[in-house]
Amino acid sequence: MAVTTTAFATIRPVDCHFFGNPGALSDLPSTLAEMYARPDWMRDGLCHEYPQLDWFNTRQNKLTRVVCSQCLVQGECREYGVADPGLVGMWGGLSDQHRHDERRARRGRRAA
């Protein structure tokens, strides 16, 4: 294993047992472009037509929910938001708290 030392850090090869999951690194996107690629449905989001709304401000939830309720890709957006707990703001008409509640409810249904 080669160790590289720079002026800022020592870089060691990454262990392929990433978080105890052999081969996990092979599942990671190979480029930044792949990491930041957005699903095709995002282009059709009605939110693009309302840049004046703050999609991350909980005080505007009522306004953003109205827009989301009219959006053709609300279902895809909602599932995307629920699937990624790291996202913030309004996704598919659900706020951070509502997506958290939805994830918890789904876990409960699977466990039952």
Briefly note the structural class of the backbone: mainly alpha
Termini separation: 47 Å
Write the element-wise H/E pattern from the N-terminal end onward. EEHHHH
- How many helices? The count is 4
Helix content: 25-40%
Q: What oligomerization state is this entry in? A: single chain
Tell me the Rg in angstroms. Answer: 19 Å
Q: Mean pLDDT, as a whole number?
A: 79
| Spans of at least 5 consecutive residues with low confidence | 9-24
Structurally, the number of domains stands at 1
Main sheet characteristics: 2 strands, antiparallel
* Major β-sheet strand ordering: 1-2
* Structural shape: globular
Strand composition percent? under 5%
Number of E-state strands: 2
